[in-house]
Amino acid sequence: MAEFIEWMNRLPDPLWYLALSVGAGLENFMPAIPADSFVALGGFLAGAGDLQAHWVVLGTWFGNVAGALFVYRLSYRHGQSVFERGFGRHLLRPHQMQRMRRFYSRWGTAAIFFSRFLPGVRAIVPVFAGVTHQSWSAVIAPITLASALWYGALVQIGLLAGQNLNTLIGMIDRLSAMLAVPAGLVALVVGIWWVRTRRAPDE
């Protein structure tokens, strides 16, 4: 561990901040990438090396929020057409899109906020917020607030791990296992909804 810290300290701090920010943002495009691990690692590096915790929080928060809003905007402009032709029209039928639009209009802000704490789910919710044409203000507020709270907590976890990387890995693994339960339940509920609403009311 001492060798790792020494090697880390030889790298320019801005390079670390940039790498952590990009790593946290990539989750919005590839949900399998664990943004939480990048953020917690940043906290660990702040506690064990020369990085500043507040810059780690700001960098990872900015990267993740910027990525989420980019995906939202892209879906806002082009997402609806994807589901109107080709394979997309079989994925979501028009009446299902209408149901989803009503759900977002009523519960969208809360859904976006709480989804930012769930790995995997947080990358999907802004996509459909864009597809259903939710307003910019209804999307940006819950994303920025929830991400700030969550990433601040993750950096604190990294700091608490001190200089023990194995301790950090264990803490992140336990946290991921706990969050996998509600994320799985959300996926199950969405799957059941999708199956049960495939048939249009007039069929």
Which helices and strands appear, and what pairs or packs with what?
Elements: H1 2-9, H2 13-26, H3 35-48, H4 53-82, H5 88-91, H6 94-115, H7 121-131, H8 136-160, H9 165-196
Describe the fold and architecture.
There is one protein chain. This protein has one domain (2-196). It has nine helices and no strands. Helix content is 79%, strand content 0%. With 203 residues, the chain is an all-alpha fold. The termini are far apart.
Mean pLDDT: 84
Oligomer: single chain
Question: Measured on Cα atoms, how large is the radius of gyration?
Answer: 19 Å
Total number of beta strands: 0
The helical percent reads over 70%
Following the backbone from N to C, one meets helices and strands in this order, namely: HHHHHHHHH
Please tell me the total number of domains.
1
Task: List unreliable stretches of 5+ residues.
Answer: none
Sum up the structure in keywords.
203 residues; mainly alpha; 9 helices
Would you summarize the structure shown here?
The chain has nine helices and no strands. It is mainly alpha-helical and 203 residues long.
